[in-house]
Amino acid sequence: MAARASTRVSIAWSGAEPIEDTDTLVLTIDGYSLDLRVFNSGPDVGKIDWSTVAHVGEVEGSTKENPILKWDHIIDSRPPTDMPDQGKFETLPNGDVIEIGIMHNPKTNLYEDYVETWRRMKLPAAAPYIVLASEDGGTQAYLGRVGEHALGLAKSKDGEYYAWRDKMEDGKWKRIYQFGEDIKSLLPDLPTSIPEEWSKDDNVTLGGDSKWVVKTIGKL
């Protein structure tokens, strides 16, 4: 599949019981990953837990049955770590997917084993997908859409992180989350319908005068 939308069901650290304290959406689109995780409980409810844009691909030892994927981050809401962002995947009988690996746990400041459970969202046939990118003065911004799900993620040259998440309802985009002031200057809204004339590597304009490059585009 060229594109998919996923939500996280749970995460278990170092063999502990699985929990889920975020509302997470990941759009995987033709080698790009756009990821926004927002706390939905606990002391940081309503804040970003983690968000990235990355190039994603298979690594040595990966198989069709048990892929091993690595994410090379383009932008990241967290400080960089020495540990590669990499995980091995297994499909469960109910269709969910578990991801197994080692990563930095910000709550303990340790590198720990983890098991994440992911659920693929149902998408209609011929659902559109697209990734657009913009870079201006050291600020990097990305917009992605898969079907009725969309993310806008950006990091300024000063290290400030911006994000929004939208969902299509009754033919219009509904804003689910938004982080950052004056966000439309960096992350304009996506059109409700992707123009038929757009194609990969095109230079397009959004929000009046915002310049973007189409990185990938298509339909499922």
Automatic annotation (TrEMBL):
InterPro entries per the UniProt record, alphabetical: Hri1 (IPR031818), Hri1_N_sf (IPR043047)
Record protein name field: Protein HRI1
Pfam families to which the protein is assigned, alphabetical: HRI1 (PF16815)
Provenance organism: Kwoniella europaea PYCC6329
